[in-house]
Amino acid sequence: MRILIIEDETRIAKRIERMTKEFFLNTLESLTCVHALDDGIEYLKNNKLDLVLLDLNLNGESGFDVLEKSVSEAFHTIIISANKHEALTAFEYGVLDFVPKPFNKTRLEQAFNRIVKKEEVTTENLQFLAVKKRSGIQLIDIKEVLYIKGAGVYTEIYLRNGQKELHDKSLEKLSQLLPQTFERIHKSYLVKITEIKEIIVQTGSKYSIELKNSEILPVGRTKYKTLKEKLV
Amino acid sequence: MKNFIYLLSFLIFTSCYYKEEHEERIFSTSKTVSIKGDNPIYATKNFDDTNWNTKKIEGNGDEIFWSRKKIEITQQIQNHKVTGILVFAFGAYTIYWDGVLIGKNGNPGFESSAKKTGSFMETYVIPTHLLEKGQHSLALKRSKIFGKDDERDVDIYIGDYKRLVKQPLLNAVLINILTGAFLVTAIYYFLLYINDRKKYELLLFSIASLLFFLLSIMEYLKFYMPIHYSHFYLRLQVIGVLVLLISFLVPYYFSIQFPFKKRNLFMWIYIVLLLGVFIYFTGEYDLTALLLGQMMWFSSTIIIIYAIYKKQKTAIVILIGLLLSFIVFKTSIYDISLFVSFGILLFCMFYILSDKLKDKRLAFEQSIAQSTRLKYELLKKKIQPHFLMNTLTSLIDWVEEAPEKGVEFIEALAEEFDLLNQVENEKLISISQEIKLCKSHINIMKYRKEIDYIWKDEGINESENQRIPPAVIHTLLENGITHCLPLDNNIMQFKLSVKSSVKELNYTFITFGKVRSKTKKNTGGTGFKYIKARLKESYGNQWEFTSNEIENGWKNRITIYK
Question: ipTM higher than 0.90?
């Protein structure tokens, strides 16, 4: 685990640091703590990470700029913030969890467990997927998303308008964030259930689905059963 | 309000079209001729007065002299109509129509020993049998001991008696309704002024109303109160002075309500011109009033047009009022024009006043709302989640890790809340109280940030009145903590210097530290807004606030002008 903490309150930063160490123990590869946004952004540029713990209000500046950048990256983001009213927005952007201050060890560990145990977030709040473009971060409304295809460490997001966007997060991580309307139908595919027209059963227990736009996607043998249940 | 004004102006305006029932002139008259001496034969109808003097005769003490006037009745008068003669004559006299005594005004020949009785203007009944079409004579047996130099010619008017007596009274009644309104307005606004002495314009408006009231009373007094001929000019002089005062006051009032550069110069020139006209035309009463009225109108119009040019609110309505008063002035007879145009002017003044008072009330209400908002913001400083939750999180950590320190932290927190409670309702607090507030905040932040904060101050003097709106320095301190990093030895220092002189009070607050993210300018956001709003609340525009980066820190400067 490579973790970055962005927190301007020294005492709180130390607390998070301590609890993180206690939780991850020897699985922790690196743990860095910065006190300012600029330092955080700089660190993000130059280092590979698995998790960012971010305070949204740093030295009087809003952390949403970093948040946008952070959620478009391959790693997960957990917000630790005093402003609870920003939680919904944070989830809309695609954070793994929002830990309100003041927090205790149990609550922080609950957030960490989402990563370790690959628990799915049960919220339906995700509204956007932040993708990196040459012009900067672009927010894609998930209403526009038909399905997502895993392509190694990153993913391809297929949109209603026929376009395709690349996302740095793995299919695994996205499936943790996306609402339950998205179903894993194959080791490489996440599909929005409402976009499925029908399941096609082919000879030799080969399954596939046809989308409303006539595209055909493969269905994994193990996924067929749950998919069928959900569609009925 | 505007609609109301238009309606009222319309009503005032329409009153100008009210036409009196026209009465045809039924007589013509010759010049007055006079002779010294006393002879009953002078009264007779056909007495030959051709060798009498057409020049005015000056009475000499109680000496009797006679005046005669030839009158021709040009139309046959209906029998049943009582006809009267209105006589304007100075002096005490008995009056004869065709040799018949028809009335007595005062006591001719005994003025020095009797009371001043009689009026300069009197109406008598002419016997109906002496009213046939043709030549008639009017003879006055007179004496005149007052007003030697300023005798007017004997003037008469013949017409329906009831009308002669009633009509002026009727006019006076109508005018007195307006007059009453002027008086009530004057009293009401004077009382308002008594209660709020700062509102000088209330006093001006009250005086203007009072002057209008006095002017109307004086103008119409002659119709219901006998004025002895010796007081005739006194009344005109009083009216003259009243018109002079009004002619000054109205433009002055406008200039106060719509201030402009060189106002004083403008008003002084105007005063000199007014006085010049007043003195130059002494003795020509109606002409003086007319000229002064026109000067008043002209100067007011200049002020108002300038106000319109400067886009002053309500000025356009006033201009309409002025134009209206000008039209009335030009289209109606003297007595009506005077009151209607003055009435319109007063209404204009009233309109400005009510509008400005409304503005002031709104501003006052806004200031109350603003004060409440600032109080709320002061309280919010301590309950806004960023401060509170971060503090509590640190607190939990201290309690878990070092319980004793945790207790100290709680005590520091309690102190800050306590101090804040003490000042929450104040608009201004002493600087020492403010410093306490800052120090307690530092105490809390020390536990949160684990930085050595050092506080220094100089120039604090309890005996001087060094005051400041609550949490202003505190806000600067918060900004310092947020936007600066400690120096290398983990120390951050704050220094407050207070300097007070006769003219100003000066607070300089410096944070010594490394300024974060140099690319982003410190605009201060809500913190600066709070400081500025607080300073404005207590000092209006008499303050200055600067905030800028210096070497090794950040410098804020608040200057309050006394």
Answer: no
Q: What angle do CA A64, A66, A70 make, to 5 degrees?
A: 115
For chain B, what's the residue count?
562
Is residue B199 located within the same domain as residue B319? yes
Q: What is the SS3 assignment for B263?
A: helix
H/E segment holding residue B457 = strand B452-458
Considering only the beta carbons, identify the residue of A57, A100, A102 that sits closest to B386: A57
Tokens of B278: 């007043």
Last residue of one domain, picked from the residues B314, B329, B361 = B361
Q: What superfamily does domain A128-231 belong to in CATH?
A: LytTr DNA-binding domain (2.40.50.1020)
- Which residue in B385, B447, B525 is closest to A11 by CB distance? B447
Residue B551 CB burial class (10 angstroms; 0-12, 13-18, ≥19): exposed
Q: Which residues from A are below 8 Å from B451, CB to CB?
A: 10
Residue B179 near residue B343 (C-beta atoms within 8 A): no
Instruction: Compute how many other C-beta atoms are within 10 angstroms of the C-beta atom of residue B16.
Output: 17
Q: How large is the C-alpha radius of gyration of chain A? A: 19
Residue B302 Cα, gap to closest chain A Cα (Å): 55
Q: What is the pLDDT along chain A (232 residues), one digit of tens a residue?
A: 899 999 988 899 999 999 999 999 988 899 999 988 888 888 988 888 889 999 888 776 777 777 887 888 888 889 999 888 888 888 888 888 889 999 999 999 988 988 887 665 555 677 788 888 888 778 888 888 999 998 888 899 999 998 888 888 888 888 888 888 888 888 889 898 888 888 888 887 788 888 888 888 888 888 888 888 877 7
Q: What's the CATH number for A2-116?
A: 3.40.50.2300
Q: Half-sphere exposure of residue A84, counting CA atoms within 13 Å on the CB side?
A: 8
Structural domain for B35, as ranges: 27-153
Helices (H) and strands (E) in chain B, counts: 13, 17
CB A62 within 8 A of CB A74: no
Backbone angle region of A205, left / alpha / beta, with phi > 0 → left and psi within -120 to 50 → alpha = left
Phi/psi class of residue B466: alpha, beta or left (left: φ > 0; alpha: ψ in -120 to 50)?
Answer: beta
pTM of the predicted model as reported, rounded to 2 decimal places: 0.60
Between CA B366 and CA B416 the distance in angstroms is: 30
Q: Which helix (H) or strand (E) segment is B309 a member of?
A: helix B285-309
**Is the domain of B90 the same as that of B197?**
no
The CA distance from A191 to A183, in Å, is 5
What phi and psi values does residue A43 have, to the nearest 5 degrees? -65, -40
Residues B442-487 pLDDT 10s: 999 999 988 999 999 999 887 778 899 999 999 999 989 888 888 8
> DSSP secondary-structure letter at A195?
G
Pair B70, B137: CB distance under 8 Å = yes
CB A71 within 8 A of CB A126: no
CA of A80: which chain B residue's CA is closest? B390
- Asked if residue A102 has a cis previous peptide bond (ω within 30° of 0), the answer is yes
Task: Choose the mutation target among A11, A58, A84 for the interface with B, i.e. most B CBs under 10 Å.
Answer: A11
